[in-house]
Design goal:
Distance between the termini: 142 Å
Strand order of the largest sheet: 1-3-2
Amino acid sequence: MDDKLKIEGVLSQGYGIIPKLVMKDKDLTIEAKAIYAYISSYAGNGNTAFPSVGLICTDLDIGENRFHKHKKVLIEKGYIEVKRERDGRGIWGSNVYTINSVINYSPTLQNEVMDEPTRHYPSMDEPTLEHPTMDNDGTNNNSFNNNSSINNSLKNKQQQPASEKQLNFITTWEQTGFGMIPPLTIEKLEHWVKDFEGNESIVVKAIEVASDQGVRKYAYVNTILKNWEDKGVKSVEDIDALEKKREAEVQAKKAAPKSNFNKPLLRKETLPDWAKEENQQVKEKPMSEEEKAHFRKRLERINNFRVDDGGRAEA
């Protein structure tokens, strides 16, 4: 029996290589980095992979529009190439993603990438006696600082004076009857804020509209935001303009005359005077003695009328 190597744990489903430069590129969104990491995990030690769009969106829990939007960034920066080929039957197959090892632009890095580790500048994974650890009192804990920054931001919003306080979508969500907002919903609405170029008031407006309609669910808020995005909404003023336009169309439809196209035609005919009922009554006049004698004479002649053998009439 041949020996087999079995990998267990988080590596059991496969793994790939992710360049640090991609993760440090400030020009890439977190979605673009997640898509790159996902493709890399399927590429393994190679540079090509072909997971379907549906699989990527399902595993990353994002919509197709959002996926294509951030995938486009990776293509424009030259990190990946995407091709699609037909099989032997002429049917289009899945996208083939190629990870490029060389890019033609200079990314903006979050901080300088360290050169190769040396005795004087060791890497974090290889401390030396002179530098036993890279952690010191001056080193910042990024995770702690990020979380503290988020918490401080929320506290600052809550502690603003009433005259300066701007309603954010978390407060709106909870004050309009949706209940306590789940962390996943916060994340999804934050992405919507980014899609509307940081205009949080649009997301707040969508929550208010959903509440006014009595449908206090994220799915309905998401539908409203998608509709506004498709119509090119950039501000609350655009939303108000769309609502006024819709109301005007409704009023115009109500005021428009109803069409008689489908109604049966009704013909109206006018009777002539002689056909009217009052003109059809017969007035009888009694005959005089002279008229009676004349009538009897004519009747007698008719009774005595005959035809001979030659076809001639004789009286």
